[in-house]
Amino acid sequence: IGLISQNSLTVDNIDKFTIEIKDSENDKLIDDSNIIKVTVSTTNKLLKFSTENGGDIKDNYNKDSFEYNNNDSKTIYVKTGTSSGLEILKVDATILDKNISQEFTIPIISSFPDTISLIYVDSSYANGLYNDRYRVTATDKYGNPARTGSKIYVGAVSGLIKDDQEQDIYVAGNSTNKGTIKKSTNGTEFSVNKNNYFENVSCYDTLVVLADENKLDSSYLGGWIVEDKISNNSLLLKGDFNIAETSRLSFLVGNEKRFDSCEQQPKSVSFDSEDNTYELQKDGVTYFKLEYPPFMVGKDVYLYANSYDKKRVGVSMRRKLWGTGIN
After folding, report:
1. Could you give the CA distance from residue 148 to residue 313 in angstroms, rounded to a whole number?
2. For the segment 36-51, what is each residue's pLDDT rounded down to a tens digit?
3. Is 1 a residue whose pLDDT tops 90?
4. pTM given for the model
5. What is the pLDDT of residues 119-142, one digit of tens each?
6. Helix or strand or coil: residue 209?
7. 78 CA to centre of own chain
8. Burial 192-202 (b: 16+ CB within 10 A, else e)
9. 120 against 27, higher pLDDT
10. Contact residues for 269 (Cβ-Cβ < 8 A; gap 6+)
11. First and final CA of the chain: distance in angstroms?
12. How far apart are CA 227 and CA 236, in angstroms?
């Protein structure tokens, strides 16, 4: 008994595989008339069968097993559930008066990131720089660890841009100057009501949308690179935004640099990946290191992590840098 299938199936998806029954001596398909009955079942119940070709209607897939006869090569349609893991497919066949069985292992893999979390792990010091290590955990929309190999992009804002009144662009709490994000003819647009508020913002600065009250959708949270300035109160952001216009968002605008008044020069934070990109490993986890000079100790930094595999997903966190001291 042979199985022709993809290397793996994806959660909550309709797929198919083919069962072939061959003569072990000459490796040729057995005559259909000799196949009395074939039963295909699963051990871990991670997928369901349809009666025949269930098509695209998921409700058609409600059987725990599938039976057929008089067919040496049968295509079977299945729908995976919402849990990832290893499914054991068992095929029991009656060929004339002989019973044979075969088991196959089918990996059912999770989907792409739907939520991301950031957690501080520990700190170290080497070559004149502090290194803070963080853990990124991502899950798909069903709560499974997100797919291995999915890319996570991280960034940091350590210095805030000033508005037209020389105040930090940091909007939260009960501020009347909260932002609105929407999809426009230009792309993804972020705006405020206050004129000239973004006067000092430049291309490649970063806008970070912060979680606040009931504003918790990962579609807009996290970091956005400023692609262009539409006006002094409206920014064009790099990346797609595909949900409804959302207003009253808390946010900040800045970049990775902070000015050192003692040495009269900017200092930066950086990451241990040249392009700030990391891949999820087993269990939907990856780690990154944030590197910073002693000058940054005691300062706040705003970290963010984004994923763009199937849709944009983001998260951010505020953390005070303590070096290897109090954490």
Report:
1. 16
2. 999 999 999 999 998 7
3. no
4. 0.86
5. 999 999 998 999 999 999 999 999
6. strand
7. 25
8. bebeebbeebe
9. 120
10. 156, 158, 256, 290, 291, 292, 296, 301
11. 59
12. 6
* Residue keyed to tokens 């508020």: 197
Structure tokens at 155: 């960034």
State how far the alpha carbon of 269 is from the alpha carbons of 66, 98, 132, 159, 289, in Å: 58, 70, 11, 10, 10
- The predicted-structure confidence for 230-266, as pLDDT tens digits, reads as follows 999 999 999 999 899 999 999 999 998 776 666 666 6
User: What torsion, rounded to 10 degrees, do the Cα atoms 213, 209, 253, 123 define?
Assistant: 90
- Which pair of structure tokens corresponds to residue 166? 């020389």
The tokens describing 87, both together, are 């499914």
Residue 285: CB atoms within 10 A of its CB come to: 15
- Assign residue 180 a region (left: φ > 0; alpha: ψ between -120 and 50; beta: otherwise): beta
**49 within 8 A of 66, measured Cβ to Cβ:** yes
Q: Phi and psi of 282, rounded to 5°?
A: -60, 145
Distance CA 31, CA 51 (A): 23
CB of 247 closer than 8 Å to CB of 180? yes
Contact criterion met (CB below 8 Å) for 155 and 316: no
Q: Which residues contact 90 (CB under 8 A, 6 or more apart)?
A: 40, 41, 42, 43, 101, 102, 103
Contact 82, 142 (CB under 8 A): yes
Residue that the structure tokens 């070096």 belong to = 323
